[in-house]
Amino acid sequence: MSKILMTMNEETWSTHGDHFAVTYRVDEHDCLDCAAGLEALGHDVFFVNWNDLGGQQFGRMFYSNGRRFVEPVPLEDMDLIWVYQMEGFYSDRTRFLQMVDIFEDACALVINDPRTIRHNLGKTYLWELQRRGVRVIPTYRVDETIVRRIGSGEPCVLKPVFGERGNGVILARTPADLDRNGCDWGHQFIAQDYMPSVRNGEKSLVFLGHRYHHAVIKRPCPGDPDEFRCNESRGGTVAVYEPTASELAYAEKVLRVYASLGCPVHFSRVDFIDSDKGPVLMEAELLNPAAFANYSGKGRLFGRKVAEYLDRLIAAQEVFRPRAQGCGAPALSS
User: Fold this and answer.
1) Cα gap 331→315, rounded to integer Å
2) Rounded CA gap, 167 and 164, in Å?
3) Domain boundaries in the chain?
4) Do 12 and 279 contact (CB within 8 A), yes or no?
5) What are phi and psi of 43, to 5 degrees?
6) CA 20 – CA 65 distance, rounded (Å)
7) Which tens digits make up the pLDDT trace of 87-122?
Protein backbone atom coordinates (compact mmCIF):
# COMPACT_ATOMS: atom_id res chain seq x y z
CA MET A 1 0.00 0.00 0.00
CA SER A 2 1.51 3.31 -1.10
CA LYS A 3 1.50 6.51 0.92
CA ILE A 4 0.44 9.70 -0.89
CA LEU A 5 0.72 13.23 0.49
CA MET A 6 -1.46 16.09 -0.78
CA THR A 7 -0.87 19.73 0.13
CA MET A 8 -4.25 21.37 0.71
CA ASN A 9 -5.79 24.79 1.31
CA GLU A 10 -7.20 24.53 4.81
CA GLU A 11 -10.03 26.47 6.42
CA THR A 12 -8.40 26.12 9.81
CA TRP A 13 -11.30 27.45 11.88
CA SER A 14 -13.57 24.71 10.49
CA THR A 15 -11.11 21.85 10.91
CA HIS A 16 -11.64 19.48 13.84
CA GLY A 17 -10.42 16.09 14.96
CA ASP A 18 -12.10 13.99 12.27
CA HIS A 19 -12.44 16.60 9.54
CA PHE A 20 -9.89 18.49 7.44
CA ALA A 21 -11.77 21.53 6.08
CA VAL A 22 -10.64 22.76 2.68
CA THR A 23 -11.07 26.36 1.61
CA TYR A 24 -12.60 26.56 -1.83
CA ARG A 25 -15.71 24.85 -3.11
CA VAL A 26 -14.04 23.80 -6.36
CA ASP A 27 -11.04 22.41 -4.49
CA GLU A 28 -13.22 20.63 -1.97
CA HIS A 29 -15.16 18.71 -4.57
CA ASP A 30 -12.18 17.91 -6.78
CA CYS A 31 -9.55 17.10 -4.17
CA LEU A 32 -11.84 14.94 -2.05
CA ASP A 33 -12.95 13.02 -5.14
CA CYS A 34 -9.28 12.49 -6.04
CA ALA A 35 -8.49 11.32 -2.51
CA ALA A 36 -11.47 8.95 -2.56
CA GLY A 37 -10.29 7.50 -5.86
CA LEU A 38 -6.79 6.90 -4.47
CA GLU A 39 -8.18 5.30 -1.32
CA ALA A 40 -10.38 3.01 -3.42
CA LEU A 41 -7.23 1.74 -5.14
CA GLY A 42 -5.70 0.88 -1.78
CA HIS A 43 -3.48 3.92 -1.21
CA ASP A 44 -3.05 5.73 2.09
CA VAL A 45 -3.75 9.44 1.57
CA PHE A 46 -2.55 12.21 3.87
CA PHE A 47 -3.52 15.91 3.81
CA VAL A 48 -1.25 18.71 5.01
CA ASN A 49 -1.35 22.48 5.24
CA TRP A 50 1.90 23.85 3.85
CA ASN A 51 2.06 26.34 6.72
CA ASP A 52 2.69 23.40 9.06
CA LEU A 53 6.01 22.51 7.45
CA GLY A 54 8.78 23.14 9.96
CA GLY A 55 12.33 22.16 9.11
CA GLN A 56 12.10 18.98 7.05
CA GLN A 57 8.77 17.62 8.31
CA PHE A 58 5.15 18.62 8.95
CA GLY A 59 3.88 19.32 12.43
CA ARG A 60 0.34 18.15 11.59
CA MET A 61 -0.98 15.53 9.20
CA PHE A 62 -4.51 14.33 8.46
CA TYR A 63 -5.01 10.68 7.50
CA SER A 64 -7.84 10.84 4.96
CA ASN A 65 -8.58 7.10 4.98
CA GLY A 66 -9.15 7.11 8.74
CA ARG A 67 -10.65 10.62 8.90
CA ARG A 68 -8.38 11.66 11.72
CA PHE A 69 -5.18 13.51 12.52
CA VAL A 70 -2.21 11.23 13.09
CA GLU A 71 1.42 11.43 14.10
CA PRO A 72 3.03 12.93 10.99
CA VAL A 73 4.54 10.35 8.67
CA PRO A 74 8.13 11.18 7.61
CA LEU A 75 8.27 12.59 4.11
CA GLU A 76 10.88 9.98 3.25
CA ASP A 77 8.19 7.33 3.70
CA MET A 78 5.93 8.85 1.06
CA ASP A 79 5.66 7.17 -2.33
CA LEU A 80 4.19 10.24 -4.00
CA ILE A 81 3.82 13.89 -2.98
CA TRP A 82 1.22 15.93 -4.81
CA VAL A 83 1.79 19.68 -4.65
CA TYR A 84 -1.91 20.36 -4.95
CA GLN A 85 -2.90 23.65 -3.26
CA MET A 86 -1.01 26.14 -1.08
CA GLU A 87 -2.80 29.25 0.15
CA GLY A 88 -0.73 32.39 -0.37
CA PHE A 89 2.40 30.74 -1.76
CA TYR A 90 2.93 33.42 -4.41
CA SER A 91 3.57 35.96 -1.67
CA ASP A 92 6.13 33.66 -0.01
CA ARG A 93 7.92 32.14 -2.96
CA THR A 94 11.20 31.55 -1.17
CA ARG A 95 9.55 29.36 1.45
CA PHE A 96 7.46 27.65 -1.24
CA LEU A 97 10.53 26.75 -3.30
CA GLN A 98 12.27 25.50 -0.16
CA MET A 99 9.29 23.20 0.37
CA VAL A 100 9.57 21.91 -3.20
CA ASP A 101 13.30 21.25 -2.62
CA ILE A 102 12.49 19.32 0.56
CA PHE A 103 9.88 17.26 -1.27
CA GLU A 104 12.28 16.51 -4.11
CA ASP A 105 15.00 15.35 -1.73
CA ALA A 106 12.62 13.21 0.33
CA CYS A 107 10.44 11.56 -2.29
CA ALA A 108 11.13 9.94 -5.65
CA LEU A 109 7.87 11.11 -7.16
CA VAL A 110 6.59 14.68 -6.85
CA ILE A 111 3.64 15.91 -8.94
CA ASN A 112 3.94 18.04 -10.88
CA ASP A 113 7.62 17.42 -11.41
CA PRO A 114 9.73 19.94 -9.41
CA ARG A 115 11.36 21.14 -12.64
CA THR A 116 7.92 21.92 -14.02
CA ILE A 117 6.81 23.64 -10.82
CA ARG A 118 9.84 25.92 -10.77
CA HIS A 119 9.52 26.73 -14.46
CA ASN A 120 5.78 27.41 -14.32
CA LEU A 121 5.93 29.61 -11.24
CA GLY A 122 6.51 32.82 -13.22
CA LYS A 123 4.65 33.87 -16.35
CA THR A 124 7.87 34.46 -18.30
CA TYR A 125 7.48 30.88 -19.57
CA LEU A 126 5.06 32.37 -22.12
CA TRP A 127 7.98 33.78 -24.08
CA GLU A 128 9.64 30.36 -24.26
CA LEU A 129 6.47 28.78 -25.57
CA GLN A 130 6.07 31.59 -28.08
CA ARG A 131 9.62 31.12 -29.36
CA ARG A 132 8.80 27.46 -29.94
CA GLY A 133 5.78 28.15 -32.08
CA VAL A 134 2.90 28.33 -29.60
CA ARG A 135 0.40 31.07 -30.40
CA VAL A 136 0.35 33.27 -27.30
CA ILE A 137 -1.42 36.55 -26.53
CA PRO A 138 1.29 39.06 -27.53
CA THR A 139 3.32 39.47 -24.34
CA TYR A 140 5.97 42.09 -23.59
CA ARG A 141 8.26 43.42 -20.94
CA VAL A 142 6.94 46.59 -19.35
CA ASP A 143 9.29 49.20 -20.80
CA GLU A 144 9.13 52.65 -22.34
CA THR A 145 7.54 51.24 -25.49
CA ILE A 146 4.61 49.93 -23.45
CA VAL A 147 4.33 53.21 -21.57
CA ARG A 148 4.18 55.09 -24.90
CA ARG A 149 1.55 52.68 -26.23
CA ILE A 150 -0.63 53.23 -23.20
CA GLY A 151 -0.07 56.98 -23.47
CA SER A 152 -1.28 56.92 -27.08
CA GLY A 153 -4.57 55.35 -26.01
CA GLU A 154 -3.75 51.68 -26.65
CA PRO A 155 -4.82 49.67 -23.58
CA CYS A 156 -2.61 46.90 -22.19
CA VAL A 157 -3.25 44.27 -19.56
CA LEU A 158 -0.57 44.25 -16.88
CA LYS A 159 -0.10 41.05 -14.90
CA PRO A 160 2.24 40.22 -12.02
CA VAL A 161 4.94 37.81 -13.14
CA PHE A 162 4.16 35.88 -9.95
CA GLY A 163 0.46 35.84 -9.18
CA GLU A 164 -2.83 33.94 -9.32
CA ARG A 165 -6.61 34.37 -9.17
CA GLY A 166 -6.46 37.70 -10.99
CA ASN A 167 -4.76 39.42 -8.07
CA GLY A 168 -2.87 42.55 -9.15
CA VAL A 169 -4.00 42.33 -12.77
CA ILE A 170 -5.06 45.68 -14.23
CA LEU A 171 -6.17 47.07 -17.57
CA ALA A 172 -3.99 50.15 -18.11
CA ARG A 173 -5.66 52.72 -20.36
CA THR A 174 -3.63 55.81 -19.42
CA PRO A 175 -0.19 56.51 -17.92
CA ALA A 176 -2.01 57.48 -14.72
CA ASP A 177 -2.93 53.81 -14.29
CA LEU A 178 0.78 53.09 -13.97
CA ASP A 179 1.49 55.95 -11.60
CA ARG A 180 -1.23 55.22 -9.08
CA ASN A 181 -0.06 51.75 -8.08
CA GLY A 182 3.54 52.53 -7.16
CA CYS A 183 4.76 49.21 -8.55
CA ASP A 184 8.07 48.30 -10.12
CA TRP A 185 6.33 47.53 -13.39
CA GLY A 186 9.48 46.71 -15.31
CA HIS A 187 10.51 43.80 -13.11
CA GLN A 188 7.35 42.63 -11.38
CA PHE A 189 4.89 42.64 -14.30
CA ILE A 190 4.40 41.59 -17.89
CA ALA A 191 2.22 43.41 -20.41
CA GLN A 192 -0.20 41.80 -22.86
CA ASP A 193 -2.33 43.16 -25.66
CA TYR A 194 -5.88 43.71 -24.48
CA MET A 195 -8.10 41.43 -26.54
CA PRO A 196 -11.83 42.27 -26.37
CA SER A 197 -12.62 38.64 -27.28
CA VAL A 198 -11.94 37.78 -23.63
CA ARG A 199 -15.51 38.91 -22.98
CA ASN A 200 -16.64 35.94 -25.08
CA GLY A 201 -14.94 33.57 -22.69
CA GLU A 202 -11.68 31.95 -21.67
CA LYS A 203 -11.63 28.23 -22.48
CA SER A 204 -9.93 25.92 -20.02
CA LEU A 205 -9.01 22.35 -20.98
CA VAL A 206 -7.91 19.91 -18.27
CA PHE A 207 -5.41 17.12 -18.97
CA LEU A 208 -3.92 14.14 -17.19
CA GLY A 209 -0.54 13.58 -18.75
CA HIS A 210 -1.19 14.38 -22.39
CA ARG A 211 -4.74 13.06 -22.43
CA TYR A 212 -7.67 15.48 -22.42
CA HIS A 213 -10.35 14.98 -19.79
CA HIS A 214 -12.85 17.85 -19.67
CA ALA A 215 -13.24 21.59 -20.25
CA VAL A 216 -15.08 24.66 -19.04
CA ILE A 217 -15.53 28.17 -20.36
CA LYS A 218 -15.04 31.07 -17.97
CA ARG A 219 -16.54 34.48 -18.69
CA PRO A 220 -16.09 37.86 -16.99
CA CYS A 221 -18.81 39.22 -14.74
CA PRO A 222 -21.86 39.68 -17.01
CA GLY A 223 -23.06 42.67 -15.03
CA ASP A 224 -19.84 44.66 -15.43
CA PRO A 225 -18.98 45.50 -19.05
CA ASP A 226 -15.59 46.87 -18.00
CA GLU A 227 -14.48 43.66 -16.27
CA PHE A 228 -12.06 41.55 -18.31
CA ARG A 229 -10.96 39.03 -15.69
CA CYS A 230 -12.75 35.69 -15.73
CA ASN A 231 -11.99 34.71 -12.13
CA GLU A 232 -14.97 33.67 -10.04
CA SER A 233 -13.68 35.90 -7.25
CA ARG A 234 -14.24 38.83 -9.66
CA GLY A 235 -17.80 37.83 -10.48
CA GLY A 236 -16.87 35.56 -13.38
CA THR A 237 -19.01 32.61 -14.43
CA VAL A 238 -18.09 29.02 -15.28
CA ALA A 239 -19.93 26.67 -17.65
CA VAL A 240 -19.23 23.28 -19.21
CA TYR A 241 -17.58 23.48 -22.63
CA GLU A 242 -16.89 21.01 -25.44
CA PRO A 243 -13.74 22.00 -27.36
CA THR A 244 -13.52 21.75 -31.10
CA ALA A 245 -11.03 19.41 -32.73
CA SER A 246 -8.77 22.35 -33.61
CA GLU A 247 -8.91 23.71 -30.05
CA LEU A 248 -8.03 20.32 -28.66
CA ALA A 249 -5.11 20.00 -31.08
CA TYR A 250 -3.91 23.45 -30.04
CA ALA A 251 -3.98 22.59 -26.31
CA GLU A 252 -2.20 19.30 -26.94
CA LYS A 253 0.53 21.20 -28.81
CA VAL A 254 0.96 23.56 -25.86
CA LEU A 255 1.65 20.60 -23.57
CA ARG A 256 3.98 18.89 -26.06
CA VAL A 257 6.02 22.07 -26.39
CA TYR A 258 6.08 22.55 -22.64
CA ALA A 259 7.34 19.01 -22.14
CA SER A 260 10.03 19.64 -24.76
CA LEU A 261 11.49 22.24 -22.39
CA GLY A 262 12.42 19.38 -20.04
CA CYS A 263 9.32 19.89 -17.90
CA PRO A 264 7.13 16.76 -17.58
CA VAL A 265 3.39 17.48 -17.47
CA HIS A 266 1.09 15.38 -15.34
CA PHE A 267 -1.82 17.47 -14.03
CA SER A 268 -2.50 20.58 -16.10
CA ARG A 269 -4.96 23.10 -17.45
CA VAL A 270 -4.54 25.02 -20.70
CA ASP A 271 -6.34 28.39 -20.85
CA PHE A 272 -6.88 30.25 -24.12
CA ILE A 273 -9.18 32.72 -25.85
CA ASP A 274 -10.18 33.16 -29.48
CA SER A 275 -8.42 35.43 -31.94
CA ASP A 276 -8.66 35.98 -35.70
CA LYS A 277 -5.72 33.55 -36.02
CA GLY A 278 -7.24 30.87 -33.81
CA PRO A 279 -6.72 30.06 -30.10
CA VAL A 280 -4.13 32.16 -28.26
CA LEU A 281 -2.70 31.10 -24.94
CA MET A 282 -3.58 32.91 -21.73
CA GLU A 283 -1.79 30.52 -19.39
CA ALA A 284 -0.57 26.94 -19.16
CA GLU A 285 -1.41 26.09 -15.56
CA LEU A 286 0.98 23.37 -14.40
CA LEU A 287 1.11 24.47 -10.77
CA ASN A 288 -1.99 23.85 -8.62
CA PRO A 289 -4.50 24.22 -11.50
CA ALA A 290 -8.16 24.33 -10.46
CA ALA A 291 -9.75 21.53 -12.47
CA PHE A 292 -13.43 22.63 -12.30
CA ALA A 293 -14.42 18.98 -12.57
CA ASN A 294 -17.49 19.42 -10.39
CA TYR A 295 -18.90 21.97 -12.85
CA SER A 296 -18.86 19.37 -15.59
CA GLY A 297 -20.61 16.81 -13.41
CA LYS A 298 -17.50 14.65 -13.79
CA GLY A 299 -16.00 15.17 -10.35
CA ARG A 300 -16.12 11.55 -9.24
CA LEU A 301 -15.08 10.27 -12.65
CA PHE A 302 -12.21 12.75 -12.72
CA GLY A 303 -11.19 11.68 -9.23
CA ARG A 304 -11.04 8.06 -10.38
CA LYS A 305 -9.06 8.99 -13.49
CA VAL A 306 -6.58 11.02 -11.44
CA ALA A 307 -6.21 8.10 -9.05
CA GLU A 308 -5.61 5.64 -11.88
CA TYR A 309 -3.05 7.97 -13.45
CA LEU A 310 -1.12 8.46 -10.20
CA ASP A 311 -1.37 4.74 -9.47
CA ARG A 312 0.36 4.00 -12.79
CA LEU A 313 3.05 6.59 -12.04
CA ILE A 314 3.78 4.92 -8.72
CA ALA A 315 3.91 1.49 -10.36
CA ALA A 316 6.28 2.79 -13.04
CA GLN A 317 8.48 4.42 -10.40
CA GLU A 318 8.78 1.12 -8.55
CA VAL A 319 10.21 -0.46 -11.68
CA PHE A 320 12.99 2.11 -11.92
CA ARG A 321 14.04 2.35 -8.26
CA PRO A 322 16.55 3.32 -7.17
CA ARG A 323 15.92 6.45 -9.20
CA ALA A 324 18.54 8.34 -11.12
CA GLN A 325 19.47 11.68 -9.59
CA GLY A 326 17.38 14.57 -10.88
CA CYS A 327 15.11 12.35 -12.96
CA GLY A 328 11.36 12.51 -12.55
CA ALA A 329 8.67 10.23 -13.88
CA PRO A 330 7.71 10.86 -17.51
CA ALA A 331 4.10 11.79 -18.19
CA LEU A 332 1.90 8.88 -19.21
CA SER A 333 -0.05 8.99 -22.43
CA SER A 334 -3.32 7.99 -20.77
Assistant:
1) 13
2) 6
3) 3-112, 125-134+197-286, 139-194
4) no
5) -90, 150
6) 12
7) 888 889 999 999 999 999 999 999 999 999 999 999
Long-range contact pairs involving 113-117 (C-beta distance under 8 Å, separation at least 24): 113/263, 113/264, 113/266, 113/328, 113/329, 114/328, 115/262, 115/263, 115/264, 115/328, 116/258, 116/263, 116/264, 116/265, 116/266, 116/286, 116/287, 117/83, 117/286, 117/287
Q: Are 190 and 206 in contact (CB under 8 A)?
A: no
CATH topology of domain 125-134+197-286: D-amino Acid Aminotransferase; Chain A, domain 1 (3.30.470)
Q: What is the pLDDT of residues 143-180, one digit of tens each?
A: 888 888 888 878 888 888 887 766 778 777 877 777 65
Say what the pTM is.
Answer: 0.89
Report the topology of domain 3-112.
Rossmann fold (3.40.50)
